[in-house]
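User: Predict the complex.
Assistant: Input components as received:
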Amino acid sequence: MSEALEVKNLVKTFPVGKKGFFSKPAGYVHAVDGVSLAIKSGETLGIVGESGCGKSTLGRVMTHLLPATDGQVLLNGVDVTRAKGEELQKLRRTIQMIFQDPYSSLNPRHTVGRIVGMPLVVQNINPAQGRKKRVQELLELVGLNPEHYNRYPHEFSGGQRQRIGIARSLALEPKIIIADEPVSALDVSIQAQILNLLQDLQKQLDLSYVFIAHDLSVVKHVSDRVAVMYLGKIVEEAGSEELYSKPMHPYTLALLSAVPEPNPEKVRQRILLTGDVPSPINPPSGCRFRTRCWRATELCATTEPPLVQISTNHKVACHFPGPTPLPN
Amino acid sequence: MSKNILEVNNLSVSFNTSDGQVHAVDNLSFNIKAGEVLGIVGESGSGKSVTASAIMGLLTSGNVNLSGSIKLNDFEIVGAKDSEVRKLRGSDIAMVFQDPLSSLNPYYKIGVQIGEAYETHHPDASKAEVRNKVIEVMKKVGIPEAERRIDSYPHEFSGGMRQRVVIAIALINDPKILIADEPTTALDVTVQAQILDLMRDLQKTSNTSIILITHDLGVVAEMVDRVLVMYAGRAVEVSDIKAIFSAPIHPYTKGLLNAVRSLDSAIREKLATIPGTPPSLLNIPQGCAFNPRCSYKQWAGDKCLVQKPELHEIGNGLTACHLSKTDIERMNKDELPVV
Ligand SMILES: Nc1ncnc2c1ncn2[C@@H]1O[C@H](COP(=O)(O)OP(=O)(O)OP(=O)(O)O)[C@@H](O)[C@H]1O
Ligand SMILES: Nc1ncnc2c1ncn2[C@@H]1O[C@H](COP(=O)(O)OP(=O)(O)OP(=O)(O)O)[C@@H](O)[C@H]1O
Ligand code: SF4
Ligand SMILES: [Mg+2]
Ligand SMILES: [Mg+2]
């Protein structure tokens, strides 16, 4: 398997507190801070992590919806970090994004047909069966009624809107799909349909997915590998089975322990994280998780733990990795 | 637990659209007691959010047809003057919307937006009092550096942070009923656990009733006392939390629970789904709305195709299904063959 998409030392910062156009910003949000990842063709990489840790920003930089501040994006080994014009158009066809927010990602003034068909128009593609027919096929593919072609987004429920977004992302038959919370707005039976659909499409079209989600059971289900992010950095990365059965980073342990159990009789031992979520404007020194970590020592405050390989399929960035001991 | 604080009776909501009438809510009845947490689950598009909007008195646009009754402490919301409903909204009854983006105004600082919710119901409050209250509630929902971030704009916050702002707005007036529509969907599970704790505290200390709308059955299992299951605008089941997970009394609920994954599920196995697609609300199937997708309907004869099942008691729960009690028990033991 070749590396379909690779990012190296990717950095994305946002200026904050700028008073005027020419004035210096008061600081920077370090949304993505030196992330390296590779996705092979046909593979699914799951990304999980704290709200605000930079998952969506990473996805947007990977798809060129946002320019990288520093680092590289490689597509099939070719550096496309600063792609423009023709090259960018081609890139857009290859990599598509499914968005987190089914509301703001659909233009309320456009019909569903127009929204789903828009990529075809922008890229000037005329499918053999005609654009309308193709759009109706796409609607059917994601479980929407093709008769809804002329309806507007506000006439759909949250879940239905998310399916419109998925149909749109499939219009150009991309090779790589960055799916940012693609099913969180759906009921579980429709989630199951969409997840099965995404897996079928993956097999048929040899698609690669970057699958960003808060639902750890969904991520486990779809991913070959999973990366865990905290405050702009990857803190752990491993094969799916490995990560869920042998988590090593304290943040991963806390995350897994917080998953609600769909069984009222079963109570899981929770690791409650204390302390505030640190600000990405002023991240803590050393290990970024240390302010909330029960294993932190002086070393963690002074030295940043690098992401190191601890076995063939497992990397972790922690001075004291391991599944135990848990905090009281 | 005592008196019903909210009573919804025969609520129906439809929308006139260019394609015809969309029947979003059909003859829905339920109630909630003070301090109770009621979960609403169901199909995407089954009318959960529309029900919430109706309770909030927000369905006032010209294309809406609304009938039935929604009583909040004996105050009838259906047909009430907008000025009267506005007094309740944000004080007695508050809502956290599904969509964190559009419930915040991108042009105002978040501190202003949270403060506004307080000022509306406390017109005499001083600037300093409002600011203190805002910072207090921001801290309560876990927004770091509240003193500094009070002057941020919504776009400077991640999805999860924005949702905390929205929750802060809902909580600032200590409401009696909080309607939370997918309040934690945008949050990571550790923050979700904190927000759920926060809501639980609120319910315990202030006896706030909570209507929790969510697709996450793990959250339901942890949070709620009773569950209302909706399908195509109708209530199909109302059961206690333990009963619904161990012995659901409607085929749709059964299908929904089959589709649930947990952390113990295997990687990449095909997930169980409910066959077919959700019905068009322009054209709800005759009889039981679930019948085209139901794997058990042959056990109830032809009734399912022609007669709308009414909500009736089975054991401690309510179901809108034509199956007999015995057949439902067999369904739960997986002894009722499916087609
Ligand atoms: N345009 C922007 N200007 C300033 N800050 C931004 C901007 N966009 C994102 N950020 C900040 O960058 C950080 C990362 O945000 P991002 O949306 O990528 O997080 P996320 O991991 O996707 O979070 P969530 O799980 O809540 O969706 C956050 O602190 C956010 O506030
Ligand atoms: N203003 C409107 N005009 C026309 N139809 C509408 C309008 N608002 C909602 N609907 C329709 O009413 C139905 C119920 O929508 P609602 O948002 O209540 O679903 P929901 O149960 O909350 O779904 P989800 O779980 O996906 O959020 C949907 O089919 C939707 O398309
Ligand atoms: S009424 Fe009939 S069709 Fe509807 S759920 Fe019950 S058995 Fe199935
Ligand atoms: Mg995000
Ligand atoms: Mg909804």
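Residues 111-172 of chain A form one domain.
Let me know if you want any component modeled separately.
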